[in-house]
Amino acid sequence: MVKKERLDKILSNMGYGSRKEIKQYIKEGRVVVNDEVIKNNSIKVDPYEDEISINGEVVEYKKYIYLIMNKPKGVISSTRDPFSSTVLDLLDEEYLSFEPHPVGRLDKDTEGLLLFTNDGKLTHRLLSPKKGVNKKYYVEIDGYVDNRYIDSFKEGIVLDDGYKTMPSKLEIIESNYISKVHLTIMEGKFHQVKRMFQSIGMEVLYLKRISMGTIKLDENLLPGEYRELTTEEVEELKNNSKKY
Question: What are the C-alpha distances in Å from 81 to residues 20, 72, 110?
């Protein structure tokens, strides 16, 4: 059963203005609920069942948002930073009103798939190592990577602080002076992918996340671009994080 909420709170959370501005709109008769002009800002409504419009625009209510971005280099995966641009600076105001957060982090110089949501429960399930949600990366490394490393990564790599990672999957695309691989991990330790290769004496030159759970990076998104996940993608993501 959906709990009714104050009308001014709903409209404010949807980004139609501050609580003070919404109260003024209601006072001016610019808000309509089920074809009735509302003058009481404290009235409670069911945002899923009641039709709400403001300034003639019907409000399409949603409690949660789910976005996918192709993160560019040079921005931090954080909600705020006093010195650098963050991924939230790339989002439009209509999404910022939901107070979304990035699902996990990508290093400042790492590109690729980054999810955003204000659904805390889903974020927890996606990031918990116990849930085993795969994160797949395309990696370019300085040096030759041969088949012997496949077993090493499968067994777990001991990092510089003594931590042994969970089993991961290394797929060699090309072994050369600069090797190209795919690496799939189920955790998200600080700088984990870079530190895993450092532990075997190799430096990561380029890093890009290409999938998380069932969601693959949308190649139609240019660096810095994003879109909402489809209903089907959200359901797949939720189901994927429940399987483990």
Answer: 28, 17, 17
70 vs 82: CA distance, rounded Å: 23
Spatial separation of the C-alpha atoms in residues 33 and 7, rounded to whole Å: 9
What does the chain come to in residues? 244
C-alpha 102 chain-centroid distance: 4
Identify residue 144 by its one-letter amino acid code.
Answer: Y
Model confidence over 208-241: pLDDT tens digits?
Answer: 999 999 999 999 999 999 999 998 999 988 887 6
- Separation between Cα atoms, residue 171 and residue 236, nearest integer Å: 25
Rounded to the nearest angstrom, the gap between the alpha carbon of residue 40 and the centroid of all alpha carbons in its chain is: 37
Q: Which residues contact 48 (CB under 8 A, 6 or more apart)?
A: 2, 61
Provide the strand spans (E) within the chain: 5-6, 31-33, 36-37, 44-45, 52-54, 57-58, 66-71, 101-102, 111-117, 135-142, 169-174, 178-185, 203-212, 215-216, 226-228
Tell which wins on pLDDT, 85 or 138. 138
Whether pTM > 0.90 for this model: the answer is no
| Contacting residues for 104 by C-beta, under 8 A, at least 6 apart | 77, 114, 115, 126, 127, 135, 188, 212
Q: What is the mean pLDDT of the chain?
A: 90
What percent of the chain has pLDDT above 70?
Answer: 98
What residues are annotated to the active site? 107
Structure-token match 């990508």, residue found: 106
With beta carbons less than 8 A apart as the criterion, state whether 38 and 26 touch: yes
Model confidence at 14: pLDDT above 80: no
